[in-house]
Amino acid sequence: MTDVAARKAALRTEALARRATLDEPARKQVADQLVATIDALALAPGAVVSGFVPVRGEIDPMPLLEALSARGHPLALPAVVGPTELVFRRWRPGEALEAAGFGLRHPPPEAGLVDPDVLLVPLAAFDRRGHRIGYGRGYYDRALARLDAIGRRRAIGVAFAVQEVPAVPDEPHDRRLDAVLTDEGFRPTA
Hints:
The protein is of the alpha/beta class and 190 residues long. It has one domain (3-188): NagB/RpiA/CoA transferase-like (Rossmann fold). It has 4 helices and 11 strands; from the N terminus they run H-H-E-H-E-E-E-E-E-E-E-H-E-E-E. The chain has a 7-stranded mixed β-sheet with strand order 3-2-1-6-9-10-11. It has a two-stranded antiparallel sheet with strand order 4-5. Strand 4 (98-99) and strand 5 form a beta hairpin. The two termini are 29 Å apart. The model has no long low-confidence stretch (mean pLDDT 92).
């Protein structure tokens, strides 16, 4: 393991431990609070937004996704295909999801693929500069690189404020977030 990978692993562990201390009522309140940030996202009309189904204590973006859908934004959810690729499948609130690896759920293949304009990105840790630490497999880094090659996408990290760290050691392949959305509000990155 490289020095950067070891530092990221330590920061990931610390941030996830802080996230694990949040109780269920607080988590539910935060999920509902995210909806209040909808105007701050400043989305173009009809922009396709990718969210995620929360796992392992992640912040729940589902109420926000429902509000975005009600405003006419087409939605997508990620699906891991093959050993390393993350794609995005169309989804509407209430549509069935199927079980996937790592405890994930995603739309079935017949939902169809879409390239989102805006990605609400799950993460383990983040810093004020917009660098993030995921779960160590690089799915979002690769997906954002693929999408950005077509045309730059907005990537907005979604997490609890307790997941912020002073500085994420970044590498050339790491894609900086454009903003971070937490229980403390929406914040463009510097």
